[in-house]
Amino acid sequence: QVLLVESGGGSVQPGGSLRLSCAAFGLTAGHYAIGWFRQAPGKGREGVSCISGSGRSSYYADSVKGRVVISRDNAKNTVYLQMNYLKPEDTAVYYCAADRYGDQCPLLGGMIHATDFRSWGVGTQVAVSS
Question: Tens digits of per-residue pLDDT, 106-116?
């Protein structure tokens, strides 16, 4: 059984930083692209970032580009999302999930979509406010 577990969320002031972690169990992390999504209250699930199985390619949503860095340590079966210069609009529950199909980020229309991912974690809350 595949299980992904997010951690690292918290409450920060605008301009602050957080590093989220996604630990994968039951799959060989290097064989799958891993995506990060977020969902704010009353809104749909938004694709934030994705990293290929090898770590050599990545995707960032325009809303976080330049402020977020995704990385992975396949030896630890863990993917990280370093978030800097956080804004109140970054407040959401953040989820990680594994690509259904393989080791490349499944971009469609220049974006990642939740329907292309599986084995969702329960999420970690990020709250940005002053």
Answer: 999 999 999 99
Contact status, residue 94 vs residue 101, Cβ threshold 8 Å: no
Contact 71, 80 (CB under 8 A): yes
d(CA 17, CA 67): 9
Q: What is the pLDDT of residues 3-15, one digit of tens each?
A: 899 999 999 999 9
Within the chain, strands assigned E span 3-7, 10-12, 18-25, 34-39, 45-51, 58-60, 68-73, 78-83, 92-99, 117-118, 124-128
Residues 58 and 79 sit within 8 Å (Cβ to Cβ)? no
Instruction: Classify residue 30 as exposed, middle or buried by CB count within 10 Å of its CB (0-12, 13-18, 19+).
Output: middle
d(CA 106, CA 109): 10
Q: How far apart are CA 91 and CA 3, in angstroms?
A: 24
Predicted confidence (pLDDT) at residue 30 exceeds the cutoff of 90: no
- CB-facing half-sphere around the CA of 84: CA atoms within 13 A: 7
